[in-house]
Amino acid sequence: xxxxxxxxxxxxxxxxxxxxxxxxxxxxxxxxxxxxxxxxxxxxxxxxxxxxxxxxxxxxxxxxxxxxxxxxxxxxxxxxxxxxxxxxxxxxxxxxxxxxxxxxxxxxxxxxxxxxxxxxxxxxxxxxxxxxxxxxxxxxxxxxxxxxxxxxxxxxxxxxxxxxxxxxxxxxxxxxxxxxxxxxxxxxxxxxxxxxxxxxxxxxxxxxxxxxxxxxxxxxxxxxxxxxxxxxxxxxxxxxxxxxxxxxxxxxxxxxxxxxxxxxxxxxxxxxxxxxxxxxxxxxxxxxxxxxxxxxxxxxxxxxxxxxxxxxxxxxxxxxxxxxxxxxxxxxxxxxxxxxxxxxxxxxxxxxxxxxxxxxxxxxxxxxxxxxxxxxxxxxxxxxxxxxxxxxxxxxxxxxxxxxxxxxxxxxxxxxxxxxxxxxxxxxxxxxxxxxxxxxxxxxxxxxxxxxxxxxxxxxxxxxxxxxxxxxxxxxxxxxxxxxxxxxxxxx
Length: 492
Prior knowledge:
Layout: H1 2-13, H2 23-34, H3 39-62, H4 69-76, H5 88-102, H6 106-112, H7 119-129, H8 132-153, H9 158-177, H10 197-205, H11 222-250, E1 260-264, H12 270-284, E2 291-295, H13 305-318, E3 326-328, E4 335-337, H14 345-360, H15 371-377, H16 393-402, H17 407-413, E5 418-424, E6 427-432, H18 447-459, H19 464-475, H20 488-491
Parallel strand pairs: 1-2
Antiparallel strand pairs: 3-4, 5-6
Helix pairs in contact: 3-4, 3-5, 4-5, 4-7, 5-9, 7-9, 8-9, 13-14, 14-19
């Protein structure tokens, strides 16, 4: 994808200047127009813009090719009067035409290929050409339009749909170049507590194809995403509760309890009791029922407080060094999987279930894991060796020093593509980072390969078995779509 984008950008640069956008010229035009207070100029610009959009739309649907369409419509966004409510209809129309061009209808795509780029590719490259201040101004225009229209109409209009879709194209262009912050794309009206987020989620999850803001999750802030995650979990719990009740009424279930009821002893028995009952619940399909916790020998009804205390105590036990499942870094205060060849798959899976169970039941605890764990859980690609820095800053710094060493310096260190890792009970074994690693010396020519392979070993290979079991357990409860809404680095 990156190679295709680079090729498209190169092709756009090779096009005539009338197919490109000069960001400086656009900004200067905006400033000049903003300083002009003539109503006649304003009216002429609005009328001319409307006529241009009508002409482009007609040509587009008739299959008439004009490679300059995207550039012309993007240029209309320099109009400073678009920020005024009386001009919002033009802003909505601009967004609609740009989105239509960006969707690259087959007939139009074939026509626009006359200049070597489809309309979609042209639009993507033109949006990437904007600098941060201009993009920030346009994002602000669209956000203002969405907010005011939602407040006025109390409904999702075609203009809101188009503005949101155009915001999505800008969000993609911004993310690729790190131009704006994720918070710039959060919308005030959509993130208000009284916004009907439940209805929006239902539209999105129904598969009806209807527009929903959940389909553009970058527009939600972390608090709203947490509400969506909680809503998704509650709907799953309700489904499990109703299914259990129905089975009990029909006489088809041995266990009629509609809850996941954990009866736990405190102290030394806490973790053992919990793991045994969670394992039973995993086998009988009860994990997704609403959770109830009962401490044996104590009075009290679980209204949520007992659950929170239970999870806090449990986390403390799970990460106890004596338990041996995780190692703790005194430098970073983070936990990571204990690299070992010992067979602890069941235990890691159950701990993954427990952490997933906390999130599933709306208990967001402060697990001391590096962000790379969340990237791995969500299946996101790692950035090596950069993702090693948070967990092992010293190792990351040392690898950085290796990168600039000469052949002579590397030869003096005697490094090969083989490292040692713990096998359990203090025993260490040699592991090749590449085939034939023990006989492959690290040189200036392959040091980058060594750095990447070593970081991959620490974050993936050395703990593959432990993480795999942990992930299986976690995803038993946290496999819903809403969890993927979070941008982990910025929002966890």
